[in-house]
């Protein structure tokens, strides 16, 4: 069984990270986390600090975790793509595929009760392309023996009131799901 340090070494060898001349940002949290949050890709702050979700969106996520009685130290947070894309653009499908093996290994190691997909990129990468946040947010979707939950990305929730309301409602739903399991 690979551990997270071996995954970090594997990520550093990805052609994306070498091509983009950036350091991979690996997931953060305990190996026995009941919840895994999966975002899109690291941003400037994440690359600088070497941890996912440490900028404004990360602080928003932390506040929402606290609001529902969870703590960042109790959840595992990662991204679909481990390196920051040029100009902070969305990762292309072939770039997502290059990183998939590492994310799948994270999922295998952590074995969360619920994997929360933050935003459209994470949702499309892990589920069928037909899933949308508007129609599926807050629902548990079973696939390959795993439970996924779709939520808006924290950065969208910070900018758009409708997304903020969805995000808060979904976090409340996540809390109920965890309490019932």
Cα radius of gyration in angstroms: 15 Å
Structural class call reads alpha/beta
Distance from first to last alpha carbon: 27 Å
Question: Helicity range of the residues?
Answer: 40-55%
Tally of individual domains? 1
What would the keywords be for this entry?
181 residues, alpha/beta, Uracil-DNA Glycosylase, subunit E, 5-stranded mixed beta sheet, globular
Can you offer a commentary on this structure?
- The model has no long low-confidence stretch (mean pLDDT 90).
- By secondary structure, this protein is of the alpha/beta class.
- It has helices at residues 4-12, 15-20, 44-49, 56-67, 93-110, 120-126, 133-136, 154-159, 161-180, and strands at 35-39, 76-79, 114-118, 140-143, 146-151.
- The chain has a five-stranded mixed beta sheet, sandwiched between helices.
- The two termini are 27 Å apart.
- The protein has nine helices and five strands.
- Strand 4 and strand 5 (146-151) form a beta hairpin.
- It has one domain (4-180): Uracil-DNA Glycosylase, subunit E.
Break the fold down into its secondary structure elements and pairings.
Elements lengths: L3 H9 L2 H6 L14 E5 L4 H6 L6 H12 L8 E4 L13 H18 L3 E5 L1 H7 L6 H4 L3 E4 L2 E6 L2 H6 L1 H20 L1
Parallel strand pairs: 1-2, 1-3, 3-5
Antiparallel strand pairs: 4-5
Helix pairs in contact: 1-5
